[in-house]
């Protein structure tokens, strides 16, 4: 059981991705990740931080710094303080939040809101520890072209556990995405449940990652719709709203 965790930041903002785009959430960004995606826009969260930035009043961007690691009661109090303004849920994000699964299991009972897990969908043993604490699972499928790794088995195991809860899958598509790996991802989801919503997220170009063409976006959505009932294309909206 872990009573402390290294946390990068806590703040209230607008969910910019996937099914709950536009909803107000409190974001708790944990440090640490087990992957290294080419398009990662939160490299800041890969390493442990000496200080955590915590917003004092929801949306006012008046951050205070607290020494890491932070204990459960202190973090829960700071999160609940932001929840005085109604929020759709508290987003546990990172990095990969399941690197802190024991801590999440402990803090879950102290947070007065739904919990939304933003995860890369690979740490299925860790998911088992918290699945009863989580309300919504936003699971990425990570393609080999993005990570340099084959993660199909991990994703399969993860989906089997995550489907107990409200679940949707997010798949980032870029100029590097291949048709073969895309097809494999769609088959992986449809073999488990063709009604799992899929959100295709055209990559926000960063580093050496190239954007996907408009024609390719239509092609990928068409391919996915042949096997899945709900396939939407939603980019990272917080980037053009200039939100955190
Ligand atoms: S899983 Fe997420 S946080 Fe980790 S490297 Fe990939 S994009 Fe970045």
Euclidean distance between termini CA atoms: 31 Å
Q: Tell me the overall shape.
A: globular
Give the overall average pLDDT: 96
Beta content? 15-25%
The CATH architecture assignment turns out to be Alpha-Beta Barrel
- Described by its quaternary structure, the protein is single chain
Order of helices and strands: EEEEEEHEHEHEHHEHEHEH
Radius of gyration: 17 Å
How many domain modules? 1
CATH superfamily name? Aldolase class I
Widest beta sheet: strand line-up: 5-4-2-3-7-8-9-10-11-12
Percent helix range? 25-40%
CATH class, anyone?
A: Alpha Beta
Q: What small molecules does this complex bind?
A: iron/sulfur cluster
Low-confidence stretches: none
Largest β sheet strand count, sense and barrel closure = 10 strands, mixed
Q: Assign the CATH topology.
A: TIM Barrel
Q: Main attributes?
A:
244 residues, alpha/beta, TIM Barrel, ten-stranded mixed beta sheet, two-stranded antiparallel sheet, 8 helices, binds iron/sulfur cluster
List the helices and strands and how they pair.
Layout: E1 4-5, E2 7-14, E3 24-30, E4 51-55, E5 63-67, E6 70-71, H1 72-82, E7 89-93, H2 101-108, E8 115-119, H3 124-130, E9 136-140, H4 144-147, H5 152-162, E10 166-173, H6 179-192, E11 198-202, H7 214-225, E12 231-233, H8 237-240
Parallel strand pairs: 2-4, 3-7, 7-8, 8-9, 9-10, 10-11, 11-12
Antiparallel strand pairs: 1-6, 2-3, 4-5
Helix pairs in contact: 2-3, 3-5, 5-6
Residues 33, 35-37, 40, 42, 94-96, 120 line the site of iron/sulfur cluster.
Textual characterization of the structure:
Helix 2 runs parallel beside helix 3 (124-130) and helix 3 (124-130) packs parallel to helix 5. This protein has helices at 72-82, 101-108, 124-130, 144-147, 152-162, 179-192, 214-225, 237-240, and strands at 4-5, 7-14, 24-30, 51-55, 63-67, 70-71, 89-93, 115-119, 136-140, 166-173, 198-202, 231-233. Helix 2 (101-108) links the parallel strand 7 (89-93) and strand 8 (115-119). It has a ten-stranded mixed β-sheet with strand order 5-4-2-3-7-8-9-10-11-12, covered by helices on one side. 39% of the residues are buried. The protein has one domain (4-240): TIM Barrel (Alpha-Beta Barrel). It is 29% helix and 25% strand. By secondary structure, it is an alpha/beta fold. The model has no long low-confidence stretch (mean pLDDT 96). It is built from eight helices and twelve strands. The protein binds iron/sulfur cluster. Iron/sulfur cluster is lined by residues 33, 35-37, 40, 42, 94-96, 120.
